Structure formats: structure tokens, C-alpha cells
UniProtKB/TrEMBL annotation:
It comes from the Bacteria. This is (d)CMP kinase. The keyword ATP-binding applies. It comes from Salmonella enterica I. The keyword Ribosomal protein does not apply. It catalyses: dCMP + ATP = dCDP + ADP; CMP + ATP = CDP + ADP.
């Protein structure tokens, strides 16, 4: 029996700081990273590169099913790799944003991208950033977090290994009315 790779999901609205946290966690743990918000932009860019009709669900589904994309966090920066090329800047253009809105409207495209997102779950583990990672994409994730507000202070991530288990320690310099120096440590056994 093959063990299923662990997943940590970080969900929340844009601007909540989840991307920064996910990049830091993926680097610290040396796990894979999924930025689900970018995946629709990547699909849109791939469709534009391959001259696929953005109004054709039938043409977009195979492209979505076989989308060759990776997310790599290096030195706190997220690189989006499409078909071997860094397209991190290109997916942030208005043209791609408009195209992403078009492709996201198709139910079969969303279903194909759901399967593609689940395929990111590989050893040693996955950090998944999105809005529905813990509820829709990875409902069985052992660790789920939902962020409503941006982090107010620094986050330090330490990875501790022991013989049979790994623990992720998140240390948050919390914002408390009584003490701005208060610290919260969260230990997650994986």
C-alpha cells in the first residue's frame, strides 16, 4: 500500500498573506507548492500560446487536463513554470486575467483543473494555496488553515524531525492589544 502524500491547505481571500506563508512553508519543508489562483491564469496563457479558442469548452478541456505547470518557491519568490518556461510575470497581465475569467466560466474546464490540482499531491508533501483547497480540492487534508486577515508580524517556520514523525512548528509574532511581543507557537504533527 502506498502512503498518500500529506497536504497542508491555506485558504482565504486575496491579500490575506496566504501566498507568503505558503511559499515560506514549501521552502522550509522542501515540499511541492500549488497556487490555485494562478492555475486558471496559467491555463489562459497556455490557451493563448497555443491559439486555442477561449470560447470553446471542448478545446480547453484537453489543454486543462494535460497542463504542464509547476510552482517553485525559491528565496521567497514564486516562479510559475509553464511548459518549461518561467511565466511568472506574463500571467499577471490584464490580457491573461481577462482570458482567465473566460476559461473559468466553463464547468468541464473547472473539473479538469480540479483533477490537475489534485495531481500536485506528491511526496514528500504539498502546500496548497487557494480559496477552496481544504473544502473542495483536498477535503481530506490533515492540516487546514483559513486566513481572514493579513499577517501583522513576521512568521518563522521551523521543521523538526524525529525518528517516526515530522512536526511543523509555526511561530507567529502575534498582534495582541496587551503585548506586541506575544508569541504563538503551533506544532503540527505529520
Amino acid at each position: 500500500m502506498t502512503a498518500i502524500a500529506p497536504v497542508i491547505t491555506i485558504d482565504g481571500p486575496s491579500g490575506a498573506g496566504k501566498g507568503t506563508l505558503c511559499k515560506a512553508m514549501a521552502e522550509a519543508l522542501q515540499w511541492h507548492l500549488l497556487d490555485s489562483g494562478a492555475i486558471y491564469r496559467v491555463l489562459a496563457l497556455a490557451a493563448l500560446h497555443h491559439h486555442v479558442d477561449l470560447a470553446s469548452e471542448d478545446a480547453l478541456v484537453p489543454l486543462a487536463s494535460h497542463l504542464d505547470v509547476r510552482f517553485v518557491s525559491t528565496d521567497g519568490n514564486l516562479e510559475v513554470i509553464l511548459e518549461g518556461e518561467d511565466v511568472s510575470g506574463e500571467i499577471r497581465t490584464q490580457e491573461v486575467a481577462n482570458a482567465a475569467s473566460q476559461v473559468a466560466a466553463f464547468p468541464r474546464v473547472r473539473e479538469a483543473l480540479l483533477r490537475r490540482q489534485r495531481a500536485f499531491r506528491e511526496a514528500p508533501g504539498l502546500i496548497a494555496d487557494g480559496r477552496d483547497m481544504g473544502t473542495v480540492v483536498f477535503p481530506d487534508a490533515p492540516v487546514k488553515n483559513f486566513s481572514l486577515t493579513p499577517p501583522r508580524r513576521n512568521v518563522r517556520i521551523d521543521v523538526c524531525y524525529s525518528c517516526r514523525r515530522m512536526a511543523l512548528v509555526l511561530t507567529l509574532n502575534a498582534f495582541w492589544p496587551r503585548s506586541r511581543n506575544a508569541t504563538i507557537a503551533i506544532v503540527i504533527a505529520l
